[in-house]
Amino acid sequence: xxxxxxxxxxxxxxAGAKKTGSIGNGGAxxxxxxxxxxxxxxxEKLGVSxxxxxxxxxxxxxxxxxxxDTGVEMFLxxxxxxxxxxxxxxxxxxxxxxxxxRANEALENHATLVMTxxxxxxxxxxxxxxxxxxxxxxGASHVRFEGFKSDNFLNIRDPFLEAVKITxxxxxxxxxxxxxxxxxxxxxxxxxxxxxxxxxxxxT
Length: 204
Description:
Elements: H1 6-20, H2 27-46, H3 50-64, H4 67-81, H5 98-103, H6 105-123, H7 128-141, H8 157-168, H9 174-203
Helix pairs in contact: 1-2, 3-9, 4-6, 4-8, 6-7, 7-9, 8-9
């Protein structure tokens, strides 16, 4: 069984295939099988149910409407628990006031950039291969930042969960917390792996 919404994604894929003329001689069936297989792979790899994946994607819509605020809140909490990371950002490393940080345009822009990556991953989380590739490339791109370590990605986990909880309020149930934990752990760990692979390749 594929994750819920597989049928809808199949329809979307089939519609796209019709526009490009790629359907014919079994093309429709192949397209539908491909979409359902991708969704099933996510459920298997992450150890979650189709219902949980569907719930996550629905819940994330509340975050999408508040991307900037959620992102800034996430980074404020990250800097509280890992103050040394703020020193990597020249534009606001000397700011100490939370109000000044919230009002800082550079922080807002960076937070939005990070949230956009998370949005891409969660929005397409039922396509395991696509999301894994994107996240690994994102992780690898951080090799260029001097002093940045792959483990730094993992520090975002708790600040992210806390920020999501604030944004969603009562909608952040115990069940939603469990699936958000699975999702963010998968996302961050994949970026870690992407950066570590890039470092190995750079060293050879």
